[in-house]
Design brief:
Rossmann fold; globular; alpha/beta; 35% helix
């Protein structure tokens, strides 16, 4: 009888005050979106002190009411010369419809930012929760050196602690928290979609091949993220370089040679104790911009336990977490990286490149081929790989093109940007956070194109609602979305777009293949153009290395 009362107490009640496994949380109600939110909910012990560079530890119980009405600390990160956030960052944010309904589908979202930047705040889920009648959860996880650090001195008998993949383990811990607690908030623990954008999507792909994630999610929504992994040795060399820099700055060594000797001489526990006494800012100060290059900040290590050493070759054997997938990409995916590349200086931002025909031709070539290669990495090549497996559930692929239609945005912006990396996020959330809109105020989002943006947002959310419920985006009243297939002359990819007034969803036979893109570049570009585009602009980019 007592157990029955306990189960009843832990069941969802239509209230902002809810009982979880570890204690009571007090959320907030939003009358405008008709949702309830619990923000900054802890899902693991703070990874501070002795828990720095260790796998996340399960949360302990708390007494009293935990007020979860605003976002909590984001993960430590360096933006320019500023260091933001905290090591105490393992929090998630939950939105659900303000209703009595239970057993709602769940979307757990991993934010983007190169695994260096960002937070769960970047994916505001209230509008999406209301429109899809789902529970939306965005998570913080450790970033940068706090989240991805493969230092030999940290190796112990604990394979999780030795993996270096702390950020990925945080995501798995959040999924475990969902499994244990989400019924208390009206969600269905047996209907969880793991989603993510950019680096978050790359983490989701890594979860597909990790045996530790088995059974923690049932579908995946992968938005602009490719198959990028790093060798453990690459991570060890990078971590050693960071530590040597700290030793020199701290006066324990006067150059790299003496720093390396110190590391070789001292016992592991001495090195670890020394490093854990340091403030995290002392490590983050050595981080620079990454710009979708693994060599500048290796992460997602093939450690052999969290991520098997075979990497994505496991897919060819069928030895991975086989779930229905949506793979997304954008029509001119590379635009934002092209715009911000130091090679161009300010000529793109101030639009003066339009008056320089030679530079403009080179820029547009980089935009075209970089976007094709990037979209191929983020969608087509992964779809090709996974659909080779006989028992793989359906894989649905889209290419979003908002900003490529004439009359939708300013013509110079349509030409220089089109539909860049990140454009699709606003159509999932219903918010206006597109970075291009910030860089070019007044030339991107406008009152004139608002009806089309609203129509495309509604369309994306309808497809998402069906996928979260059933693992299939198709629903009555929507254009048929066929699953990916490699056969010629077959519709395989959904083209999502909108002009100023209305949205469109049209199936296409388009299929990007890396070798064909590179062949076309060799045919159409001059030797000088190839040297700049391949040798400088694309050098070491993710899409060149898979």
């Amino acid at each position: 009888m007592l157990e029955d009362n306990k189960d009843q107490r832990n069941r969802y009640q239509r209230n902002t005050l809810q009982q979880l496994r570890n204690g009571l949380i007090q959320g907030t109600r939003d009358e405008q979106t008709q949702t309830i939110a619990w923000l900054g909910v802890p899902y693991a012990q703070p990874p501070i002190g002795e828990l720095r560079w260790k796998s996340p530890r399960s949360l302990e119980k708390w007494s009293g009411i935990l007020h979860t009405t605003e976002f909590n600390h984001k993960s430590l990160q360096k933006i320019g010369d500023n260091i933001l956030g905290s090591e105490d960052c393992l929090y998630l944010n939950i939105w659900r419809p303000d209703s009595k309904e239970e057993n709602l589908p769940i979307l757990v979202w991993a934010h983007g930012g190169g695994n260096l930047l960002g937070s769960g705040e970047d994916f505001q889920g209230d509008i999406l929760a209301a429109q899809t009648n789902s529970v939306i959860i965005s998570i913080n996880y450790r970033l940068g050196i706090m989240g991805w650090f493969k230092l030999k001195a940290l190796n112990t008998d604990n394979k999780l602690d030795s993996s270096g993949n702390y950020g990925l383990l945080d995501i798995f811990q959040a999924l475990k928290w969902v499994k244990e607690n989400i019924q208390c908030l009206g969600g269905d623990p047996n209907n969880v979609t793991l989603g993510g954008h950019s680096a978050g999507a790359r983490n989701v792909l890594a979860a597909l091949i990790s045996p530790l994630a088995k059974g923690l999610f049932h579908k995946a929504l992968i938005v602009s993220g490719g198959r990028t992994l790093a060798e453990a040795k690459q991570g060890e060399e990078y971590a050693e370089e960071i530590v040597m820099n700290v030793l020199i700055k701290d006066g324990k060594a006067y150059d790299k040679i003496s720093a390396k000797k110190w590391l070789e001489k001292e016992a592991n526990h001495t090195i670890v104790s020394y490093l854990k006494e340091k403030s995290p800012e002392q490590f983050l100060s050595f981080l620079g911009p990454v710009e979708i290059r693994m060599k500048d900040f290796p992460h997602l290590f093939l450690d052999g336990h969290v991520i098997p050493r075979e990497g994505f070759d496991l897919v060819k054997k069928g030895d991975y977490n086989q779930v229905p997938l949506i793979l997304g990409s954008d029509a001119t995916e590379y635009a934002i990286y092209n715009i911000l590349d130091s090679f161009w200086g300010s000529v793109v931002i101030d639009l003066s490149i339009l008056d320089n025909p030679k530079k403009l031709k080179l820029y547009l070539a980089a935009l075209e081929y970089g976007s094709k290669l990037f979209a191929c990495l983020n969608a087509d090549s992964t779809a090709d790989l996974i659909t080779e497996i006989q028992n793989q559930p359906p894989v649905y692929v889209y290419r979003l093109g908002w900003g490529t239609e004439r009359g939708t945005i300013s013509d110079p912006l349509r030409k220089l940007v089109g539909a860049s990396h990140q454009v699709d996020l606003d159509f999932f959330t219903g918010y206006e956070n597109y970075v291009v809109n910030t860089l070019f105020p007044g030339k991107c989002y406008s009152e004139g194109n608002k009806p089309g943006r609203k129509a495309l947002t509604d369309l994306v959310m309808q497809y998402t609602k069906s996928f979260l419920n059933y693992g299939d985006p198709n629903h009555d009243g929507l254009s048929k979305w066929y699953s990916w297939q490699k056969q010629e002359d077959k519709p395989r990819i959904m083209k999502l777009n909108a002009d100023a007034e209305k949205a469109s969803a049209i199936m296409s036979e388009e299929r990007l293949i890396k070798e064909e893109i590179l062949d076309e570049m060799n045919t159409k570009l001059t030797t000088e153009e190839l040297e700049i585009v391949l040798g400088q602009l694309f050098q070491s980019r993710f899409f060149m290395e898979y």
